[in-house]
Write a structure and sequence with these properties.
Elements lengths: L9 E2 L1 H4 L11 E2 L6 E6 L3 E6 L2 E6 L4 E5 L10 E7 L4 E6 L4 E4 L4 E4 L1 H4 L8 E7 L2 E6 L3 E5 L4 E6 L10 E6 L3 E6 L2 E6 L12 E2 L10 E7 L2 E6 L8 E6 L2 E5 L8 E4 L4 E4 L4 E4 L5 E5 L2 E3 L2 E3 L4 E6 L5 E5 L3 E6 L2 E5 L11 E5 L2 E5 L15 E6 L12 E2 L17 E4 L5 E4 L4 E2 L5 E2 L13 E4 L2 E5 L20
Antiparallel strand pairs: 1-2, 3-4, 4-5, 5-6, 7-8, 8-9, 9-10, 11-12, 12-13, 13-14, 15-16, 16-17, 17-18, 19-20, 20-21, 21-22, 23-24, 24-25, 25-26, 27-28, 29-30, 30-31, 31-32, 33-34, 34-35, 35-36, 37-38, 37-42, 39-40, 41-42
Amino acid sequence: MGKCNLLVFLVFSGISSVLAQNSPGTWHDYFSYANAIKISDTGEKIFCASDGGLFYLDLSDNSMNKISEEDGLSDVGMQTIAWNESRKLLLIAYQNSNIDLILENKIINLSDIKRKLLSGDKTVYNVIFQGNEAFLACGFGVVDLDLTKNEIKGTYIIGDNGTQVKVFDLETDGQTLYAATETGILTADLNNANLLDYRNWTRITGIPHAYGKFSQLARFNGNLIAVYTQDAWSGDEAYIYRNGQWQRIMSEVGYFVDIQANTKYLTVTGREEVFTYDVSLNSISRIKSFSLGNLSISTIQPKSAICSSDGSLWIADYMYGLIQNSGQNFEQYLPSGPMNNSVFSLTTHKKELWSASGGRTDPWNNQYRAPVFQHLKRVNGVFSQRKNFLNLQVFTTLFRLWLTLRMTVIFLLPVGGVGFLSSKTISLSNDITISTVHWKQLFPKARRNHIPGLAVWLMMQTIPFGLPIRSHPKDCTA
């Protein structure tokens, strides 16, 4: 396990006092919300879960609001979220199986699954609601939550002969509960009082790959959709149960990351694209890239998407946060914060905080993290914009660079590469050039500044640490 796989950094009173007006002895978080993983649409708000936490866009005034442990959340590291319209409730499932229920004026924690001594996978993969109950698709079976009493009503171990089986998704038509598992699709009558008995769960045998792994379920326009997966780069197959038979659909989608449906639209998140369909499963749109101002993003990383009632497409992208698409227009919504949560070391200078990414495993092996400087300067207590960050993408793999001896600074990067930078433009290879700027404006008295995982030796007193630039092939100036 890595020495620092922590995807957050918390700054305690001594450091945070130079950055924001925190009360002495209190914690304040500086998370990145860029790695978005799941979206829920309430009609009035768009909730977005990310690796760094939860935020929402209030559609009435376009304001963004963060919800964190400071506001009452019980944990960090979200796995999925789901919205219950009838109870005005947002359910959060964390990676450690902890559960939070966010209501209008309170947050209720249900830690039963997290605390349960159970061997195997306790991950909560997905959530659906039926009446006053929430059904959780878990790595060991199905958990039934009573939302009236806010407690677990039942735990259903539904594998063959009462053994554990991974359940990746659930769906219901109000009468039957469908479970997508690693060994096929199982069903149970919701009116049956004893769902604890595995013998009350039956397998759907008429669908192709009936004993294979099914990862996604959705109910759209009155029909059940199921996705079979080979866990490969492509090769997933989607089927719809219509007119008494299973029919192959959406063959253009090679891999299904997420499916979300409402009364008008079916939204499918693929590996690097997002598909939208109408009630007749006619294709409406296929998004493969973004244009955010002057920034063109040719390869996207969508994790979840939903089409709202007005036709706007909302995408949770793992690099760029919450994206809204309307026609040819794209807009990014992202709370202020660092560009990612990969933080290995911190240092302060003149009421400013610098962080470095990186990391190593216990035997000092490479974690292959992109070497990134991030800079927190106190401007209304928020992070500098991304254009001020340094991102040395050219050092992301283990290699050697042989440069001239006139270089004055040596970087020993966390990825194991060795490179040299000076105040002049230097050539790293035949097709990559890095230009550095304003070396003498930061740390004028620094001689040596050591950051674990990213060591910088300053060979001259007049050449200080700090690079307020972002690197790109051929031109890395901001």
